[in-house]
Amino acid sequence: MTDPATIDAAQAEADTRRWLERAVIGLNLCPFAKAVHVKAQIHYAVHLPAEEAGLMDALLSEANDLAAVDAAVRDTTLLIAPNTLADFLDFNDFLGRAERKLSRAGFDGVFQLASFHPQFQFAGTEADDIENATNRAPYPTLHLLREDSVSRAVEAFPGAEAIFERNIETLEALGPDGWAALDVGPGSARP
C-alpha cells in the first residue's frame, strides 16, 4: 500500500474509481451510481494540499463548475482530498462548515453534499463495525449531487428509503474479510 502522504492526483483518482466500481457499484451500495458511471457523468477532482481552507475553496469552485455544466455532461462531482482531514472527527466538523458555505453561496436546494471517509463511523458503532464501510472511501471525499438528479432517481427507484438497511445487510453478509478482499484502499489501483 502507498503512504497517503505521498498520494498524487492520478493515484487518488484511480483508487477512488476502483472503490466506486468494486464497492459502491459492485455491491450495489448506491443503485444510482452505475448509470452516471457508465455515462461518464462523474467528475473526479483531487485536492492535494493539506489546508482545510484550500479544500473549502476547492469545494466552492467545484460547485460553481458543476452548476455551469449540463447534467447530461456532468451529473455529479467527487472531490477527493487524500492529504486533508485524515481525522474523521475533524472531517465531520468540516462538513458542517462546508454545508453552510454552500448554502451561503446560493447552492441550497441545488446540490446535496454527501461524504465518505476512510475512518467513517456511525454514531453508536464501534470503529471496526462492518456497517461503517457503507461510507468508507480510500480518502476523505466530498460528493456534490444535483438535487434534481437525486429526486428523479428516488422517484424511479421503489423503496429508496430501504437502501441504508439493505447496505448494512450486504456488508454484514460480506463481513470484514470480504470487505478487505475487495482491495479498495489507498494505493490499491494502478493509475
Automatic annotation (TrEMBL):
InterPro entries: DUF1415. This is Peptidase.
